[in-house]
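Batch job 17 of 40 flagged for manual review because the log was empty.
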Amino acid sequence: MPTTSAQPRVLVAEDVRAISMRITHVLQGRGYQVEVATNGEECLALIAAHKPDLVILDLMMPRMNGVEVLKRLRSNPETADLPVIICTAKDFSTEMKHVRELGIADVIIKPFDHDTLAEKVDHCFHQFCDIASHKAPEPAVPAPMYAPTLEATRARIVLWGTRGSIPVSGPRYVRYGGNTSCMEYACGNDHLVFDAGSGIRELAFALLSGGPRHLHLFITHTHWDHIQGFPFFTPIYIPGYEITIYGERGFGKNHEALLSGQLDRDYFPIQREDLRAKLNFRFLDDEPIFIGDIKVTREFTHHPGATVAFKIEHQGRKIAYVPDNEFLQGYVGPPQDIGRDHELVIPQEPIVEFLTGVDLMLHEAQYLAPEYSKKIGWGHSNLANACVLAKLAAVKKWIVLHHDPAHDDTFLDNKLSLTRQILDEIGCPIEVLHGHDGMVEYL
């Protein structure tokens, strides 16, 4: 039989935060003291430490399910009589019969209303704990409503294109999208665009509502998937826009010649002289570029041609954009064997140093090992090698982009799980996500 206290104690074992918060709100309003466990193991630990008067137990929880928790409670003499209310969306007769045989006070089926929850908990305490001796505290005076709004000056990145090589479409690519490389960094009136793949067309539509302004376009390199959207970037046709385009001099033609060359009459119906925006072409060098208080620097990556990575430093944060980089070219061995002093790392020390400590790294991991072994030297990373780079550079968060056009949604879902597994195995448990078209990340 549970003990009672000045304020009856209820432990809510529920892994869905919205539900646990709802239960907590209702019960605290009726004078109960509430604690929350988010998995089965934590539930048992809190019961042992705090000895609640009642447990509200979800059946489906991580680490240990509710049935197993209930079995352990009933096998322990100290908790054999502890009242338990099952709260579940699974009301199958076989499962309900099983938990009732183990001994429960009641069942609440999700979704539930506040009155049902309160009635069942009150009844349980009247039945087992004589709650009549407890007086609920006076209702608290409501605090002023906290209703924050998003700060207009808060910086954000938007991924408008996350594919490599060539755009793709169809039902197999709905979640991650099919546009090629384009990222926007926006803060207030400043808009920095990185690469002009097919995703830049969608960006153009978003920019038009703000009217003519000065835009800054940074090109990592001039392969098709990073420039093919330029002729479809609407602002270049509108008077009043000024667009400064930054790029390397290249090993052959420079970025001005290649971007303008797409407007040749043999390729496109509109020519260079038909553009109405003011275009400035600027070569990158070793000096930082400042746009207001935003600092942009670059470093060469391991990819065919004059290819660079960009780093944005602004408001105390560092964001690196590295869509094309074959880290540890040719290596297909265990990632655990690679350290900062490895002979394959030393030649690529500049890019490792460039990325060290960034708050957010946007970097490719285009191939799994079986694919990579056939594409060594193509300029894209083996997944495990990209994980090594994230560890060596001690990055804080990683968004994977430049997805291979052959990798559909299901493949990428499985690949993300594998990425997290590899990072865990090499002792680099950072947050990692797969970028998708339209993804917004506030900084």
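Reviewer: the log was empty due to a logging misconfiguration, but the result itself is present. Confidence is low (pLDDT under 50) at residues 1-5, 130-137. Unflagging and moving on to job 18.
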